[in-house]
Amino acid sequence: MEKIKKVVMDADGIDRSLTRIAYEILEKNKGIGDLILVGIRTGGVFLARRLQQKISAIEKNELPLGILDITLYRDDLSISGHKPRLGKTEIPCTLDDKKVILVDDVLFTGRTIRAAMDALIDFGRPKSIQLAVLIDRGHRELPIRADFVGKNLPSSLWEAVSVLLTEKDGCDEVIIKEEH
Amino acid sequence: MILILKGARIIDPSQNIDEVGDILIQDGIIVDLGSNLSKSSQTEKQSTQFVDISGCVVTPGLIDMHTHLREPGFEYKETIVSGCAAAAAGGFTSIACMPNTHPVNDNRSVTEFIIRKASSCSLVQVYPIAAISSGSEGKNLTDFWDLKEAGAVGFSDDGKPLMDSALMRRALEYADSLNLPVISHCEDLRLSSGGLMNENSISTELGLRGIPVVAEEVMVAREALLAEFTRTPVHIAHVSTAGSVRIIRDAKSRSIRITCETAPHYFTLTDDVLRSFNSDFKVNPPLREMNDVTALKQGLADGTIDAIASDHAPHALTDKEVEFEYAASGMVGLETSLGLSLKLVEDKILSWNDLIRKMSTDPARILRISKGTLRPGANADITVIDPEMVWTVEKHAFLSKGKNTPFHGWTLKGKAVITFVRGVITYQDKAFLDNRIKVAKRGKFYIS
Amino acid sequence: MGLSRKDILGIQELSVEEISLILDTAESFIEVSTREIKKVPTLRGKTIINLFYEPSTRTRTSFEIAGKRLSADTINISSSTSSMVKGETLIDTARNLEAMNPDIVVIRHPAVGAPHLLARMIRPSIINAGDGAHEHPTQALLDMMTIRTKKGKIDGLHVAIIGDIAHSRVARSNIHGLMKMGASVTVAGPATMLPRDIEKMGVRAHTHLEDAIQEADIIMMLRVQTERQNQNLFPSLREYAAHYCLDRRHISLAKDDVLVMHPGPVNRGIDISPEVADGPYSVILDQVTNGVAVRMALLYLLIGGKE
Question: Is B372 part of a structural domain of the chain?
Answer without folding.
Answer: no
